[in-house]
Specification:
By secondary structure, the protein is an alpha/beta fold. It has a single domain, classed as TIM Barrel. Helices cover 36% and strands 18% of the residues. The longest helix is centred in the first third of the chain and has 17 residues. The chain is globular, with a radius of gyration of 22 Å.
């Protein structure tokens, strides 16, 4: 059964309070520099090693400007990911980033500066990219493509990272969407699920676990010896 990491794209309250409700968070520090590494290390101590953290790169990276400001933001993000012991880093690109060869080279340059292979590098393009272009580009750059599983099938591979979007944060995840996602997760080893509708997150995790448990093959009962008389050759041994 797939190992699930389900949480929100932001903290609600302190990280220790948040960790009582969820087992994963996608953090993003878009309003300025991230907290000091010492603060981030204390966050990691507060939640323990079993809690999963994903780091979303700052908004300045989303248009691939290739400027000194972006360079500084990347350096700060890598330092933050290290302090947090983040297991995933997510780059979200805007609709301005189009499927061209110069764009792909910029993506290659940016992602080559992120830690590998200990961290899962994820890419979530917005705009006019076609699914086949996203998957092909992600494969070429050794990135994990991010889709909204409510609308698109998960890409092939043992690990999935999906964002269940909500318009204005107000659209809850439907039962049908959860059932669809559960079917797709049957072939996965691990799944990161970011739920934008905060009130749906715990229900999504619970219902996915129940749905996946139902699909687990039942184990045959252990073989038991059949009572009966010993054969002559058995007695002679």
């Amino acid at each position: 059964m797939a190992k699930l990491h389900v949480g929100l794209p932001h903290l609600e309250g302190s990280i220790s309070e948040y960790a009582l409700k969820h087992d994963m968070v996608e953090l993003g520090f878009d309003t300025g520099a991230p907290p000091k590494p010492s603060t981030l290390r204390s966050w990691r101590r507060d939640v323990g090693p079993s809690f999963s953290i994903s780091l979303r790169l700052p908004r300045i990276c989303s248009t691939l400007p290739m400027t000194k400001e972006m360079d500084r933001a990347l350096e700060e993000s890598v330092a933050a990911a290290t302090a947090l012991e983040a297991r995933a880093i997510v780059l979200v690109t805007t609709a301005e980033v189009r499927p061209t060869q110069p764009t792909i080279e910029k993506l290659r340059s940016l992602t080559s500066r992120l830690p590998r292979p200990s961290v899962l590098l994820c890419w979530e393009p917005r705009g006019i990219w076609e699914r086949r272009e996203i998957i092909a580009t992600a494969r070429d750059l050794d990135l994990l493509p991010v889709f909204d599983a409510q609308n698109d099938p998960l890409p092939p591979g043992p690990v999935a990272y999906t964002r269940l979007r909500a318009l204005g944060g107000a659209q809850k995840v439907s039962q049908r969407a959860v059932e669809k996602l559960a079917k797709e997760l049957q072939s996965k080893r691990e799944a990161w699920i970011v739920v934008e509708h905060a009130a749906s997150a715990k229900r999504v995790r619970s219902e996915l676990l129940h749905a996946l448990a139902r699909t687990m093959p039942s184990q045959p009962p252990p073989a038991r010896p059949v009572p009966g008389k010993l054969r002559a050759e058995d007695e002679e041994q």
